[in-house]
Amino acid sequence: ITEGELYFKGGSIIGCLATRNGDYDDATGSSAVHKWTDGCGGAIYIQESGYCEMSGNATVAYCATTGLGVSRENFIWGRTYFQGKGGGVFVDAYNEKYGTFDLKDNASIHDCFAGNGGGVFLNSVGAVMNMSGSTSIYNCCAHAHWSNTQDQGGGAVYVSAGESSWAVFNMNGGKIYGNKARRGGNGVLVLG
After folding, report:
1. How far is CA 90 from CA 18, 100, 157, in A?
2. What is the C-alpha separation between 73 and 80, in angstroms, rounded?
3. Which of 114, 131, 104 lies closest to 16 in space, CA to CA?
4. pLDDT of 123-133, one tens digit each?
5. How much is the pLDDT for 165?
6. CA 21 centroid distance within chain
7. Which of 125, 106, 95, 102 is nearest to 44 (CA)?
8. Among 24, 59, 60, 165, which one is least packed by beta carbons within 10 Å?
């Protein structure tokens, strides 16, 4: 979503895989090993004044960014390592145009995976996320290969900010539970 709006008020986005260069399988049983790529936003990518509202009973589930060893067998046995940001949703901004993501009502994000921000990744140049109502983010995971020391944080939400940039996560309701991160912030990781 670039400088547009998406109102996702019901239904589901299930089983998506973000990739940067098209190097992926559909996770139906192939055992191909993936290259290190940095796909972002397994289900939804919001940038440059883009706006997305997930409300009603909308669901994003079983989505991921690309990784190393992504296959059905490796995933079941815990040998899959993910690369990229925002297994479910990636919120970005550019040139003072801020992306915004609202999670409302009973909407949920679950069972999503990435190197950083298993559920949601807020990039450091003005990304905004508002979570309210009876929403939930659960069973998401930030899990990258052990040699990748940059990734592996924010099981549910990763908030990235720097010296001259900012990102905002407002939580006025909802639940974050059952998430895991290899390095830090099983629920929420805020870096700034």
Report:
1. 10, 10, 10
2. 9
3. 114
4. 877 889 999 99
5. 75
6. 18
7. 102
8. 165
Instruction: Return the HEC string of 120-177.
Output: EEECCCCCEEEEEEEEEEECCEECCCCCCCCCCECCCEEEECCCCCCCEEEEEEEEEE
DSSP string of 30-80? Answer: --PPPP----B-SSEEEBTT-EEEE-TT-EEES-EE-EES-SHHHHHTT--
Tokens of 15: 């089983």
Task: Please state the pTM of the whole predicted model.
Answer: 0.81
CA distance 147 to 46: 29
Round to whole Å and give the CA distance between 170 and 19: 28
Q: Please tell me the distance from the alpha carbon of residue 111 to that of residue 94, in angstroms, as a whole number.
A: 29
Tell me whether residue 12 is exposed, middle or buried, using C-beta atoms within 10 angstroms of its C-beta: 0 to 12, 13 to 18, 19 or more. middle
The label of the residue with tokens 């830090």 reads: 184
Residue pair 89/46 in contact (Cβ under 8 Å)? The answer is: yes
Task: Render pLDDT for 41-71 as a digit per residue (tens, 0 to 9).
Answer: 888 989 878 899 999 999 999 888 876 555 4
The DSSP 8-state label assigned to residue 2 in this structure reads: B
Which amino acid type is present at position 174?
Answer: G
